Amino acid sequence: MTLQWIDNQKGIDRYRIDNGKGAMVEIITLGARITKLIVPDRAGDPTDVVLGYDDPAAYFDDTTYFGAIIGRVGNRIDKGRFALNGKTYALATNDGANHLHGGKVGFDHRVFKAMPLDSNKLELTYTSPDGEEGYPGEVKVTVVYTLEEDNALTIAYRATTSADTPLNLTNHAYFNLNGDALSVGGHIAQINADYLTDVDEGLIPHGELLNVKGTPFDFTSPKPIGRDWDGDHRLLKIARGGYDFNYVLSDSAKEVACVTGDKSGIVMTVLSDRPCVQFYTGNFLDGVEGKQIYPYHSAFCLETQGYPNAVNVPSFPSCILKAGETFSSTTTYRFGVK
Ligand code: BGC
């Protein structure tokens, strides 16, 4: 196991953790992003399973959130507005009239401070000032990436705040388990969720849940990601053909989802203590030039999270982090082969 500082380009540090067993991850301080994640495929060949750019400086102009830590609040907040403790707040809006993934300059574009904790552990910290993107309170966030011996990457999140504030941290890695830039439609996916949060035309949940049974959204048993995504269902249209929905995890689900690359045999199992996961199939990718050229549907994301738009939906569990409390959460992406 080794943790190595690689370089600094335009103020962005790059680190590499190698477990000596075929898994390697590269992380940069801009957005605490995962820029490379190598795991062996079924033939033992090293395969980079995340989308990204070769040049760390290219992340300055990134609009896809490749590999980034998302905050303060991942996913959408209706009109960027909410009320808290008797005050109303107007956040930066960056997705039409709505707030997405922390606003105009979210955590994905903030420079974190990196500190190696061990030969397999990198800590990244960022202090989000009071009022940033319209949010109350100063938030101190710590993200620790740990690469395990058994080819699992764990992300541990911790945050505190000086005043009550909404918080919904996630990581926005885009995966293609075949290591190519072709459609992920043939990947086989299973998600441990019987419900998703229904959305309006702007992809905003307002409290209604949709039972996935018998719908194109049912991933309770493994199926090819692309089997049903061309259908006429209202929600598939809203999502631009494909998936872009918040799945509510079954109560007992520690195991969130499991996806297999149909060509590589690489199996990724996601484990988390969060209540939900955003399953997104790259419906807004349009030929982004990165390590490869990434067209529509060439990746999927499994963003573990709290309920989106929870600040405006009383029936959803609260996402408010209170002053004096500590938020902590863990998500693991474990890799194997089939
Ligand atoms: C959202 C998509 C959004 C994408 C941005 C996902 O988390 O659900 O709607 O377009 O992030 O890359």
Q: What would you note in describing this structure?
A:
By secondary structure, the protein is an all-beta fold. The protein has a single domain, classed as Beta-galactosidase, Chain A, domain 5 (Distorted Sandwich). It contains one helix and 29 strands. It has one helix at residues 234-238, and strands at 2-9, 12-18, 24-28, 33-40, 46-48, 69-70, 76-77, 81-84, 87-90, 99-100, 113-118, 121-128, 139-147, 152-161, 165-166, 170-171, 188-191, 193-199, 205-211, 223-224, 244-249, 255-260, 266-272, 276-280, 288-289, 293-294, 301-305, 320-321, 326-337. Strands 11-12-13-14-29-23-22-17-20 form a nine-stranded antiparallel β-sheet, with no helix packed on it. A hairpin with a 2-residue loop joins strand 8 and strand 9. The longest helix has 5 residues, at 234-238. It is globular, with a radius of gyration of 19 Å. The structure holds beta-D-glucopyranose. Beta-D-glucopyranose binds next to strand 24.
What's a concise summary of this model?
With 338 residues, the chain is mainly beta. It contains 1 helix and 29 strands.
Strand content: 35-45%
Ligand inventory = beta-D-glucopyranose
- Radius of gyration based on Cα positions: 19 Å
CATH class descriptor: Mainly Beta
Task: Give me the side-by-side strand order of the main sheet.
Answer: 11-12-13-14-29-23-22-17-20
Q: Domains counted in the coordinates: how many?
A: 1
Classify the helix fraction into a percent range: under 10%
Unreliable stretches covering 5 or more consecutive residues: none
By CATH, the architecture is named: Distorted Sandwich
Reported for the largest beta sheet, the result is: 9 strands, antiparallel
Q: What is the helix/strand order?
A: EEEEEEEEEEEEEEEEEEEEHEEEEEEEEE
